[in-house]
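User: My instructor asked us to take a sequence, write out its structure as tokens, and then describe one feature of it. I'm not sure where to start. Here is the sequence I was given:
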Amino acid sequence: MCLLERVSAWDTRHIRCEANSHRDSANPLRAHGRLGAACGIEYAAQAMAVHGALLAETDSAATSQRPAMGYLVSVRGVTLHVDRLDDLSAALSIHAERSGGDSGTVLYSFTLHAGPRLLLGGRAAVILDAHGLALPQRSATTPPKS
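Assistant: Let's start with the prediction itself. The structure tokens for your sequence are:
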């Protein structure tokens, strides 16, 4: 599912994307005939993922490594300034700013706007290549520990 239409600007710390999919009646995030404002978090997460891919593409020329897969593990301080997104006529502008991190985690702050109107904002944490953090899988023949 790709909700974003274009990247309008980006650098090593920021990305700005645009989307019109919030008005699409077939938007996969719609429920009960509406697209709630909290769905804006998915728009922001997709912008963060695109930012990571763009950074990895620039780095991969030097390192020949495949991009790290990221997992959104936390959103904090989210403030919703509207109830829904599907009734907005203006395009969504999604801005994410990388505010910190290391080789295993990335921290972002994000906002969504429709024109000058702030729709929501918050912070997110992403873990990169989390497969190493997975719990060991139990076999079907091994009884659970009590």
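For the description part of your assignment, you could build on this observation: The first strand starts at residue 6 and ends at 10. Try explaining in your own words what that tells you about the chain.
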